[in-house]
Amino acid sequence: MKRPVRSILLAAGLLAGPAGALAQTAEDHIRLGVAAHDAFDPVAELREIEAALAIDSLSYVANWRASEALMDIGKQTPDSVPSPERDSAYARAEVYARRAVALDSMGADGHYVLAAAIGRASLTKSKKERVRRASEIRAEALRAIALDSNYDKAYHVLGRWNAEIMRLSGLTRFFAKTFLGAKIFHAASWDSAVVYMDKAVALAPQSLYHHLDLAEILIDLGRYREARIHLNQVLTLSPDDVMAPTYKARAEFLLHDIEGKEDRGD
Question: Which CATH number fits the domain that encloses residue 67?
Fold first, then answer.
């Protein structure tokens, strides 16, 4: 008895589902995930990337992209708002990032997402635990740059790393250095925060996030004229991130907040 063509194709794995769509490979799902990422839809991106992982759990690309998608989902909930869902997303992002690095230790993307994921996940932990994890964040970001000297997002992580440590109170930094053994905190400085964030902006001048975080650092330093330049860039550049509306609202707030302020020392 002659088998219907559909049955033959199903048996060969070339068709899937009642609609008879061609079966998708892990690479197909990754491509769809990238398209969703470019459309600022991290939920759809994660769905496609996890479909790829269901086919090939050892895909380096799928693991680091799953990590990044989870961070994009999590960061839409402000850190100040209690959210088990956001905290879970960050924890999962760290798991995927560690898998990516284990799968390919020479991949810059894996080291970057691990640095970023540790940083995001640390936001849900105690100050003591955040201090303990600070050295790993820095090490992973530096590793990403060692593998790809033009990795703008890794420079951003390092810029923010320096700024966040310098924003801690002197007592907290003293406690970290003295009692927690976090001697790496000696490496932090405002100058490094500016240098690294400047580099991120130079490599990706279209990034709203780079401009916004650089502006915040410049405001901390009382360099208001420079900060205004970057805040206005945030308002004029095209969206490049799911958080673009939030970044633009923050830039507007900061411009109003520093209105009329002169640079320190003027």
Answer: 1.25.40
Q: How far is CA 151 from CA 45, 139, 208, 234, in A?
A: 22, 15, 16, 20
pLDDT along the chain (266 residues), means of 10: 40 42 86 98 98 98 98 94 95 97 98 97 79 90 98 98 87 62 79 98 98 98 98 98 97 98 85
Token digits of residue 136: 């790993």
Domain that includes residue 228, residue range: 205-266
Three-class DSSP labels, 186-241: HHCCHHHHHHHHHHHHHHCCCCHHHHHHHHHHHHHCCCHHHHHHHHHHHHHCCCCC
pLDDT at 39: 97
- In whole angstroms, give the CA distance from residue 211 to residue 232: 9
**Does residue 216 sit within a domain?**
yes
Lookup result for tokens 């079966």: 23
Count of domains in the chain?
2
**Does 177 fall in a domain?**
no
The residue from 48, 83, 104 where one domain ends is: 104
